[in-house]
Write a structure and sequence with these properties.
binds zinc ion; 5 domains; binds adenosine-5'-diphosphate; Rossmann fold; alpha/beta; 22 helices; globular; 7-stranded parallel sheet; 21% strand; GIY-YIG endonuclease
């Protein structure tokens, strides 16, 4: 046994060497408890075992080993190292985020640490005793007791008829799935019908191999064949570009079934998975107990159980997850599918590692020798370019499934409607007409507005004062239902002002409109319609969210108003009208991706309309009818958008023709920050010259009282990124030596969204 172990800790630090006590068996990837610093016991991971004596004096020894199996395999370790290198953070920071906190207990004393440790929950499982396994015997018995003990008979029948695909691998029935009380269970046990065993809840479940797959259309079959063919030729990443409603999900199902039947694991990534219960139930209908959802809304315990179950699994699991699912042990990974691959929520932005789940997923697949399918109706230009350049395989599904046709898009110019006096509240006449027709026919309507709340500004008509957040450089949003003004960045709230604090006049007005106001206005215009709203304010819990979706799905509501949330992958059959209330605030943002984003968002929203026989109508309200983005959306011309945007990106060396590394520097003292940022930018310029842009203020340059400045580095494609990283590390190291700016923080975002 080697004498030393380099241990990774969940800190922004390199690995540390510890000695391995005599007689202790350790392997790479094992979790151990280690004392670090005088007052901390951490969970660490054995990263390397060796015999080189470290050159510091007091070498501590590894504490106890935590689990009977290694937590990480080689593949996961490679992924972590890749993420740390690519996104410029430490492997310890990857660890901190990748493992559910219950897996990595921590404490100041051994008792503390133990209290924090994961204890698997047990669960009761039942089975019929051998003498009752025979159907006829049991039936006869049920007949016999039917009169005397009807409830007992019912329970027995329920157990006997339990669907076999939901049994665990011991052929037992999970107690929680049996609908009878504990008195009854113990009676059945005493009478000798059944036996009950307690088992760890992470236990695997038996797998059914018969999937009832949808019959593919000829277009879908063709796409499927193209995907498999290009994979077979070792082009391991394939882009499936399929218009909304073309049945991409059905194509996935076939790919998934194939991988599962070879006992491979499949990872299906979804953006904001908490919002995708609809897709999960569709998958469960086909893959039953093989489907496991994994996302941050699950409890820590549940995530930990899933981690351990996957660690011990022998393959054939379907994980449907948010980006963090790439860190699960997927040791038999054969296939990764990234649904809506263009979605910016695949990118983690707030804390390191600022990784893109889509890009990491393709790396993960390649580590395990699996294949990747990226899929979207509106691919990210980066992915599309990779397809154009032949790096990715590509197929295009250009037809909606069945009788469904692409929606008809009606352009409605807001200014013209105003001039004609045809605009009521936030709705131009064509939209009102479409809504009332739909309601008359018993069809449903979705209204999209990019902003939540009632009104994003309140201010004084007289002197121009607006109510702003004291901590952030933004206006406060009016929330009528809470009767408060609220900051969407720091959560600060105040009362709604009655008089202007600047000129003392009671001339306070609201400007702009959010979903809440749309909901109110549409309810007034169509009092007989049942209106619901889906945004962050109305879906604070999963159950609230699910209720809104369910009500809309079952026709309990007629009109659904919402933010981006209503765009994500929904398949509602009775939506015939979609209204995009204000396209302008999407196309006017200064970001180099704003045209692409606006196109994607509007196309996705429009895609919710007319998903069955009846043609859907989309009314697009804008005052910038000449903007090319509007034209591309109207003609559903992704290719034109892509060609035009790619040309522009090429000209200005934006991605995909470059990689951007963005540094955000923060401090509560604006002048100190500016000094530090200027110095940092200067130093970067010494190595990178004109590739350095800034420092510039980000769109919101103060949040929670902290000022921010950004410096952008553009590295043209073809230049060595690893060389660039090396130079950056050097400059960052120099900055650490600058006493004056020590308190200015620098965060790095590689490939920012
Ligand atoms: P996308 O994900 O491409 O927007 P979906 O997979 O949601 O499209 O498909 C749109 C609708 O068409 C869904 O209701 C789906 O069940 C149906 N559909 C698509 N392909 C098939 C098929 N081959 N057989 C049966 N239904 C299909
Ligand atoms: Zn005023
Ligand atoms: Zn604020």
């Amino acid at each position: 046994m080697p004498r030393y172990a380099d241990i990774l800790l969940p800190l922004a630090q390199p690995t540390y060497s510890f000695s391995v006590p005599e007689g202790m068996k350790l392997g790479v990837g094992d979790a151990v408890a280690v004392q670090f610093g005088p007052r901390n016991i951490y969970t660490g991971i054995v990263w390397r075992l060796h015999d080189q004596k470290p050159d510091f004096k007091r070498i501590k020894s590894v504490g106890r080993r935590l689990y009977s199996e290694p937590l990480l395999d080689q593949g996961q370790m490679r992924l972590w190292e890749w993420v740390a290198e690519y996104y410029m953070c430490t492997v310890g920071e990857v660890m901190r985020m990748a493992l559910p906190s219950l897996i990595k207990p921590q404490g100041s004393t051994e008792e503390d640490f133990r209290a924090d440790e994961f204890r698997p929950r047990t669960e009761a499982y039942l089975r019929l005793n051998d003498e009752w396994q025979d159907r006829d015997t049991l039936r006869a018995e049920c007949e016999r007791i039917a009169r005397r003990a009807p409830r007992r008979k019912e329970s027995l029948e329920q157990i006997a008829d339990f669907p076999s695909e939901r049994l665990n691998s011991f052929g037992e029935i999970p107690r929680r799935l049996v609908d009878c009380d504990s008195a009854m269970l113990s009676a059945l046990r005493k009478a000798g019908y059944i036996s009950v065993t307690e088992r760890e809840r992470t236990i695997e479940i038996a797998h059914e191999n018969m999937f009832s797959l949808p019959q593919l259309t000829s277009k879908q079959t063709q796409a499927l064949a193209q995907i498999e063919q290009s994979w077979a030729q070792n082009r391991n990443v394939h882009l499936l570009h399929g218009i909304t409603g073309s049945g991409k999900t059905e194509v996935y199902m076939h790919l998934i079934a194939k991988a599962l039947s070879e006992e491979k694991d499949v990872l299906l990534l979804l953006p904001e998975i908490a919002l995708t219960s609809q897709l999960i139930s569709r998958l469960e209908r086909v893959f039953g107990s093989r489907v496991t959802a994994y996302h941050s809304k699950l409890t820590n315990l549940r995530r930990t159980e899933i981690y351990f179950r996957m660690m011990r699994s022998r393959g054939g699991e379907l994980i449907v997850g948010a980006r963090s699912a790439i860190f699960l042990p997927l040791r038999h990974l054969g296939l990764v599918i990234v649904d809506e691959e263009h979605d910016s929520s695949y990118k983690q932005t707030d804390t390191a590692p600022r990784y893109n789940g889509r890009d990491c997923a393709t790396i993960l697949a390649s580590i395990y020798g699996g294949k990747t399918l990226l899929s979207s109706a509106t691919p990210a230009l980066e992915s599309y370019a990779n397809a154009l350049w032949g790096k990715y395989g590509y197929s295009y599904l250009d037809e909606r499934y069945g009788e469904a046709r692409p929606p008809r898009i009606i352009l409605s110019e807001t200014m013209r409607s105003v001039k004609r006096g045809e605009r009521k509240a936030h709705f131009n006449q064509p939209l009102l007409k479409a809504i009332s027709e739909a309601l008359e026919q018993g069809e449903q309507v979705m209204l999209f507005q990019n902003r939540r709340g009632f009104s994003p500004y309140v201010g004084c008509k007289e002197c121009g004062w607006t109510l702003r957040c004291p901590n952030c450089n933004v206006t406060l949003t009016l929330h009528r239902d809470k009767n408060r003004m609220e900051c969407h960045y720091c959560g600060h709230t105040t009362e709604i002002p009655r008089v202007c604090p600047q000129c003392q006049r009671a001339d306070i007005h609201t400007m702009g409109f959010g979903t809440e106001r749309v909901e109110e206005a549409i309810s007034e215009l169509f009092p007989e319609a049942r209106v619901a709203r889906l945004d962050r304010d109305t879906s604070t819990s999963m159950s609230a969210y699910n209720r809104i979706i369910k009500d809309f799905e079952s026709g309990q509501t007629d009109i659904l108003v919402g933010t981006q949330m209503i765009t994500k992958g929904f398949d509602f059959g009775r939506v015939s009208v979609v209204g995009i209330l204000n396209a302008d605030n999407m196309i006017s943002s200064p970001d180099f991706r704003s045209s692409e984003r606006a196109f994607q968002l509007m196309t996705q929203v429009a895609g919710r309309a007319g998903r069955r026989e009846k043609e859907g109508v989309v009314v697009l309200q804008t005052s910038e009818a000449d903007n090319p983005v509007i034209g591309w959306v109207m003609r559903a011309d992704y290719d034109a958008m892509a060609r035009s945007e790619l040309q522009e990106r090429h000209q200005f060396a934006y991605p995909p023709y470059s990689h951007i590394i963005q540094f955000t520097m923060r401090h509560e003292d604006a002048r100190l920050l500016l000094g530090g940022a200027t110095l940092f930018a200067e130093r970067l310029r010494k190595s990178f010259g004109r590739r350095v842009i800034g420092p510039v203020a980000p769109p919101i340059d103060r949040i929670r009282g902290i000022y921010a400045l950004c410096i952008m580095l553009k590295i043209e494609s073809g230049r060595s990124m690893s060389k660039a990283r090396e130079l950056i590390r050097k400059v960052m190291g120099e900055m650490e030596g600058e006493k004056m700016y020590k308190s200015v923080t620098i965060s790095i975002d590689v490939d920012p969204q």
